[in-house]
């Protein structure tokens, strides 16, 4: 039995579309299109473009223009923004000593298969639900003859207690090595209790000086200028039966992290992400601007 996460597939589609359609890219996931079937890519394209009136009731244009509008305004900002932020943060962490990269809820992330030279000497772990992980591996086998030797798969279910046992049991994982952990697109689908448990658990199995990166829904976004876009994203996600469960205030996250001995090292608001990571793209594509609506945070364990 296979399990396909529709939100993960749509995220992969948005990264693929961005990489295929643009010369100036925020994040270049050139493998994303390859891990989708042609039918999946075309079906998502068709379904999205047909739903343009939901996203923009006053839109007037072709199906291709409708798809571009939806991708740039609704689908791409979060996946490509958090990917750019995370990969830059990881590169900096590796420069100062990180030896392991743990990708929580890896989904159809392709970093391990297109890893740059600076990542060759670290151990990379993809952690996900066993059914999602198996589907991912089947797709990768069609794209690559062999997986990178520094990549390891670990099956875990974040809604179950003691999921960390599978990480600790992995012979390639070493609790004494500085680790960098990404939890992208994860906390939306966990209760606040389960997310707090995840952060506390990570803190207990990695040494001081390790880092975590995640994006999150600010509880105040609903009343901001981006509120309508966010409401449409939530409606789209709910339609896939993968309901968003939580949003946070900065102070709430600060306390949650502090309780697990993590200190916020870098926190970017949507405007800051747009300025730092989307500026070059937006300058090259003034007719197709991309603006972030989610926060990104990097936290380091207290030393």
Secondary structure layout:
Blueprint: H1 6-21, H2 32-35, H3 38-50, H4 52-55, H5 63-75, H6 77-95, E1 100-104, E2 123-128, H7 130-143, E3 151-155, H8 164-169, E4 179-183, H9 192-205, E5 211-216, H10 227-239, H11 250-258, E6 262-268, H12 270-277, H13 279-284, E7 295-301
Parallel strand pairs: 1-2, 1-4, 2-3, 4-5
Antiparallel strand pairs: 5-7, 6-7
How many beta-strand segments?
Answer: 7
Helix content, binned percent: 40-55%
Q: Give the overall average pLDDT.
A: 90
What general outline do the C-alpha atoms trace? globular
Oligomeric state of the chains present here: single chain
CATH homologous superfamily placement: Vaccinia Virus protein VP39
Largest sheet: 7 strands, mixed
The total domain count is 1
Q: Biggest sheet: strands side by side, in what order?
A: 3-2-1-4-5-7-6
Order of helices and strands: HHHHHHEEHEHEHEHHEHHE
Q: List low-pLDDT spans.
A: none
CATH class: Alpha Beta
Number of alpha- plus pi-helical segments: 13
So, CATH architecture?
Answer: 3-Layer(aba) Sandwich
Strand-pairing-aware structural class: alpha/beta
Radius of gyration: 19 Å
CATH topology: Rossmann fold
Question: Span from first to last CA?
Answer: 44 Å
